[in-house]
Amino acid sequence: MDVSKLNEKEKAVYDALAKVIDPELGVSLVDLGLIYEIDVDDQGVCKINWTLTTMGCPIIDVLTGSIYEAAMSIDGIKKCETKLVYYPQWTPDKMSREARMLLGIHL
């Protein structure tokens, strides 16, 4: 995701999502590269496309709820729609350098 193209509200949502930690890996969803798209319209509707590191992840509901709560914590966000997507497929190269180092992944 190109953070430089986000507007002020979208950036605020992004920053809130950066604090959402994957409970299995101990790394934020943003650093894992799981957040693919954030869109906030003029009516305060936030749409977030995100993915998982593996299909069938047992904590989908936990992550969905955490993403929703993070977005709704931003002033001006009136509604949040999360969409779990599988394209493009997630790979470790989507992770931040810090996340790769923390998890011991060398690309």
Largest sheet: 3 strands, mixed
pLDDT < 50 stretches: none
The overall pLDDT average reads: 94
The first-level CATH class name: Alpha Beta
CATH architecture: 2-Layer Sandwich
How do the strands of the widest beta sheet line up side by side?
3-4-5
Beginning-to-end CA distance, first to last residue: 19 Å
Number of domains: 1
Proportion of beta-strand residues: 15-25%
How would the global form be characterised?
globular
The total of helices stands at 4
Query: Percentage of helical residues?
Result: 25-40%
Rg value: 13 Å
Structural class: alpha+beta
CATH superfamily: Fe-S cluster assembly (FSCA)
Q: CATH fold name, please?
A: GMP Synthetase, Chain A, domain 3
N to C succession of SSEs: HEEHEEHEH
Q: In total, how many beta strands?
A: 5
Domain MIP18 family-like: 10-81
Protein name: MIP18 family-like domain-containing protein
InterPro entries: Fe-S_Maturation_MIP18 (IPR052339), FSCA_dom_sf (IPR034904), MIP18-like (IPR002744)
Pfam family, one: FeS_assembly_P
Give a quick rundown of the structure.
This protein is of the alpha+beta class and 107 residues long. It is 32% helix and 21% strand. The chain has 4 helices and 5 strands, in the order αββαββαβα.
